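Usage example:
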Amino acid sequence: MTTLIEKFIQDAPAQIAGTGWLKDARSAGVARFNEVGIPTTKDEDWKYTNLRALASKQFDLAEPNVPVALPDAMSGLLAENDAVHRMVFIGGVFNDALSDDLGHDLDEGITIKPMQLALEENTESLQQAMLQVMPEQANAFAALNTGLFRDGVYIHLDEHCVLTKPLELIFINSGELTLSMPRNLIVLADGARAKVIERQVSNDDCTALSNSATEIILGENSYLDYNLIQQQGKKATHIGGTWVSQAAGSQFFTRTITLGGQMVRNELKVSLNGEGAHADCLGLYYGRQRQHIDNHTTIRHAAPNCTSREIYKGILDDRARGVFHGRVLVEQDAQLTAAEQQNKNLLLSRDAEVDTKPQLEIYADDVKCSHGATVGELDKKQLFYLQTRGIGLQEAKELLTFAFAAEILEEIELESLREDLKAQVAQQMNLNLGYES
Amino acid sequence: MLKIENLHATIEGKAILKGLNLEIGAGEIHAIMGPNGSGKSTLAAVLTGRDEYEVTEGSVQFMGKDLLDLEPDERAQLGLFLGFQYPVEIPGVSNMYFMKAAVNALRKGQGLKELDAMDFLKKVKEKVALMEMRDEFLHRAVNQGFSGGEKKRNEILQMAMFEPKLAILDEIDSGLDIDALKVVAKGVNAQISEDRSVLLVTHYQRLLDYIVPDFIHVMSEGQIIKSGDKSLALELEEKGYSWINQDAA
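Running the assembly step on the lines above writes:
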């Protein structure tokens, strides 16, 4: 990593390397990364996710101008689609040719542009928002991202602006031992509303490491629907962090769906800072072969009368391993908090494994909180019911496994995304559902 | 159609059925009555193949085959249907998808072609109307959040879709108010035909006012101890089950 960092600092164009605040932030990021280094399993937050293999590999910064190589199943991803605003990133860098021209298409008060461009313009609103949610003491990967990111998306909605079409961000990774580090910033002013889909994709040969970081600032009574879809190839590594700050009355809906990748870590840190805010965080992970999927979340209630719902479900087959670490923190001032947290896991093979660690930490006295975790197999009564309807045992098992996943997928607000993911999950389970209901 | 001879079954080593005999012909409606714990529901469970029960003696022939030799899904494919006393909720599977999967599995088992989407839809809408259900039920997860009455209607809806040779309806009347009972009974009656038989398992005579059986059997201690026609139900209603027990003793 060290040579890579040196190379970056040498080669980066001035507007990316930054001046003033950005230059300072980058230096601090690199310094922090050098100080803490890639975490080991001795670190409590990384106890179940071993990155030793990563540390010894020589990564090189991803090239943005490479031909796109997508697996067949995803070839439709870049087809024309009027229902969304699309932005495509290759190796973490915006690709103009594959993206929609958003310049004329957006209503007044709505800014959506590549981060690189936003940095060049260096507006006051960007400066005010950047690095406001990600803590200085964030983990090594977040620090590295701050130090070396080249591009990403910058979204800013003025007060009461509504993004009428969902914004679809497609991050394509490719190549051998490439490193991409997209950096995203989403700011919704009071009363603004938006829906975002973020897809991380690569093909099965790709051995890239994508290290993405997203900061989200939600103003009073704003609404964000944020869907993170992880569909990287079999050898790819993804480490991503999302930091969210919510003002009073804001609503944050997030769906984290992890289907691909060899090693995936999704961090989600939500802070409910204003009264009456709601965070709705759902996740699904489906691991097969030797996949390792780690969801690491913190939901912090820092103001009274906020609600949060967190449900993560995992299906682990073959020798796959899942990790769920969910912490709900209710601070002293956060009276009348209502927080629900659940983690349910289905193990389909003897060699599959899950480590789950749900945590509640409550410092207020008038709250309603629940949490729980289960690890289990399919329900025998349900299997029998299906069998008495003529459905064979194997098919019944597949159907119930799909149903376990569908419970989360059904909660995706955007219909086409929901149906598309249901079809994909069914396909990965070798189900011939022809799902139409 | 169905011939049960000297059937003995246990659960966790405890004998529940102790030498039960019953024969049901095509197009006949039979009712099995009896006090709680007499083994009525066990009989339904054993016939459909629930694996917690062990058959220790006796035989069951259904449609000319040894029923006890078959998996639950194979029994269904032969034309056996169980309307559950407590239908299971299956979150994440829409009722529509579930019924389509089942109809096609049954057809496949019978060597028939899958029903195409249009034909399926037409049929299911017709049956939903018969059961006085809203279309919305098709799009909800199987039985999830259904009231007791809605679950029972959904069972009979399935019976109408699957067109079994023999439908065993286990306490299909339990937990129903009189209006719901009438709808359920109407659904069952609409399906009675020369080649479809029904076995009602019930605790109460009330159901038999709406679905009129050809034969009534009284069960006690894991055996059928008395059989007769519809009038037997009235006698039971009047005198209670203790009368039968004394009579048999």
